[in-house]
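Dissemination and training. As part of the outreach component of the grant, students in the summer workshop were shown how a complex can be specified as a set of sequence lines and then modelled as a single object. The example used during the hands-on session is reproduced here so that future cohorts can follow it. Participants entered these lines:
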Amino acid sequence: MILPMPHDHTHDDHPHSLLPSEPALRVKALETILTQKGLIDPAALDEIIDTYENRIGPRNGAHVVARAWSDSAFRAALLEDADPVVSELGYYGRQGEHIVAVENTDDVHNMVVCTLCSCYPWPLLGIPPGWYKSDAYRARTVREPRKVLADFGVELPENMAVRVWDSTAEVRYLVIPQRPAGTEGMSEADLMDLVTRDSMIGCGLAKAP
Amino acid sequence: MTPEPLFEAPWHAQVFALTVHLNESGRFDWPDWALRFGATLKRHGIERDLNGGDDYFVAWLETLEALLAEDGSADAGEVLQMRQAWEAAYLRTPHGAPVTLEVS
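and obtained this result:
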C-alpha cells in the first residue's frame, strides 16, 4: 500500500496547519476510530502519558536501591521476592509482570537486556532509553557484555563474572548496584542521588559520593 | 547533563499510551503484545539495524495496527479513510487554528 508522503515544509509561512508525519496521522486515525467506537477513553491516554512523563522514572528504582543499601531486612526481602516489597513502596507493574532484583557483588556483575523487544521494569525505571531498544545493544549484550560495558566506560576486574539477564513480558529485572565506598552513615535520600538509571540496568556503577 | 526526552515525538507517546490503555482495559494481554512486537522488530531489523528511536515506534505502530485489524476493532480500510480525513482537516485548517475533523 502506497500512502502519500507528508509535505516537506521548509518555509515559515504555512497557509495551512503543518501536516503531521505519516505515522502521527495513522496514530490519530486509530485514536479517533477507537474513541468513536467507545473502545478507549481519550482522557485515560493523557493520564498514562502524564504518569510516565512526570511520576514514573529512575527515581523510583533509586529509592528501592537506597533502601536496600540502608536496611538489610528490606534487602533480604527484596532479593527473595521483590513484588510485595516494591508494591509496598507504591511501585507495581500494571502489565502484570514480576520484578526480580539481582544484586551486584565483588564476584558478579549483573546486566539486563531484552532480546525479544524492550521489556523493562517500567514502574521502577520508567520508559527505557533509546539505546536499550536498539538492535546493537539487544544483540551485543548477550554476545559480548564486557565490550558493551567498556562502551559505557565500565571496566570490571578480570575475575568478576558478568551475568546477563534477558527480560521477558513476564519478568523484568532490577540491578542492585554495589554501594560505593565512603557512603557509611549517609541518609537514604543522599544515597538515592548516587543511584543512576544505567547502574540499575547494569551498564554503569553507582556514583561515588 | 541534559536529560534525554522521554519520547522523541508526541506520536511516540500517543501510540505508547494507546497500547497501554488497550492492554489495561483487557483488549489483549502483555505477553501476547510482546511476542507480536518482538516479531515485527525482528522483521524490520533484517534489512538494517534499528536504532531504537523512530524506527522502534514505527514497528510498534505497525504491530498495533495489525492487532486491531485482526480483532476487528479497526480494519485497514477504516484506518486509511480516517487518516485521509485527518490529512484533509490539516490541509484546510489555517495555520495556528485548532484542527478538527468536522467541517464547520
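The mean pLDDT of chain A is 91. Students were then asked to discuss how this feature might be tested experimentally.
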